[in-house]
Amino acid sequence: MDNQINSENIIENLKNTALDAPMAPGVYIMKDSEGAIIYVGKAKSLKNRLKSYFYGEKDVKTATLLRHIVSFETIIVQNEYEALLLENTLIKQHSPKYNINLKDGKTYPVIRVTREDFPRIFRTRRIIQDNSLYYGPFPDVQAVNAMIDLIDKLFPLRKCKKMKKNGPCMYYHINRCMAPCCKKISIEEYSLHVQRVQKLLAGDNDSLIIDLTAKMHDAARALQFETAAQIRNTIRAIESLAGEDSSVEDLNPEDRDYIAWAAEGVLTTFTVFSMRGGKMTGRDLYRTKSAADEWDSVEMFITSYYDSSRIPPSKIYIQNSFSQRRKEAEDAELELIQNWFKEKFNREPELLAPVEKHHEAILAMARQNAAEDLRKRLKERGAGPALDELARALDMESRPERIEGFDIAQLDGKHPVASLISFKNGIPDKKNYRYFKLRTVVGIVDDFAAMREAVHRRYSRLTREEKELPDLILIDGGIGQVNAAKGALDELGIDCDASGICVVGLAKREEELWLPQTKKPLILSRQSEALKLLQHVRDECHRFATGLNQRLRSKDLFFPILESVDGIGHKRAAEIMKAYESISNIAASEPVQMAERCRISEASARAVRAVAKLALEDCKSVEKYTKFL
Fold it and tell me: Measured by CB atoms within 10 angstroms of the end CB, which terminus of the chain is less buried, N or C?
């Protein structure tokens, strides 16, 4: 019975983990109770793929696999192509029990350019360290064959393994080889053809695709459909293969590590991608908790990560923020970590910034994995620590479980609105979001008066209805807006000290905290979790206020257009806008329905629809008008 309950708990935990997985492409690694990898899979969307294991009917293989899974982890990559390559590498590296019968053990093909005076170019699955150039790997074998066939036709290069000297071979006579063995072409001229092939394989193929597309259309016009189809397939092969740059397999034999991280407050997740023999052989995630600054955190991580069981490679690439700090660091700090490497391992690996795009792409992928893990940590941890820190910073008796924020949005005094948003235990409580169309500041710009009205209207109603008041009221602004809000509460007879209510303003420019009747602001560290929570509340409040203001402005913008129709005044135009919400909806409406819905004649409805269409046509794009709607 206990085993059954334990098994059900494991499945439930796995299901919840799957529901929280990212929608990004990547690879998932399933492990058993001993931590052994038993299955490696790829997915276009990790979340959707992992969810599929726990819903719907299961085949025998999937049901067997689920009985042995205890945990799984994910590795985010840039696209399906990289997921396919990484899956292949990890399966060969770990030989998972439930993958063995599904994979043939082959590697994906590459295109090789040999290192000779007269190079050959061909498809292969073997990588030989003889200074040859390799392009790929390519999962689509048919596309590789099409590319090789195109190269043979466009560039008649050498085919034979050994140079013959007793006369040109058959390939020369059918114009498939330039016979370098018989000195029919010089090394210099031959090299130009090889360079063109290298440009093609590296992705510099725009002019070639344009030329082939023209030939395809010419063949189609001449009713040579088979030829046109062959050219079309060639274009597709070029587009699918040429210039493919993978972050998980690059054929560079040099050993490298890529270190990136994501941080929030005291929490930091480090990701290390290891490239060995041109392939990504692993990804490590390390969770740390520290109040140290970025340089100190990275320094501590490096000196902890590398040890006798994990020897550092010759090159270590680290994300850009580190490189900038490194430029500003004192020589003594840099010398310290280099001396540590020398003393510990008798070697000094290079700490490098990602100058080339390829290295930048790998580090970006590493940071994406770190950020995803940090998101999960923050979700597991909740907002409790941030709320506790906020209570200490503002000298509150208890953590502010209910926070309400106010923001004002207006344009030259027109359509002034206030937004009220609510957070419960650090999480948006959207059912308690409110709008206020302000009445006392129409036609004027007075943020202080607008704030007084919004706060007064909100809390006069709560006190009248004897509903719970918030623990913290956040005002978007400085000391002026804060004092205005506090004044409104005083007018209502709300004693903030007795009620345990704290009013604080967050000024955007320096992110300063202002308390009522103070002369100096409170400054929190930019790394403070309490500050980040207040910024989240402020930004959400601003987004909510601006949204309504923009919708009001958009309706006001189109009133004159509708009023240009005979018999449509301001009141009727307002009713039409209220019924259809946007000018694009009016332009797409049926006149008969509009006439009935808005109580106007059918002729007027046709005229309204006509002017709406003209208004949209006068715009460069519909988005110019509809972006506010």
Answer: N
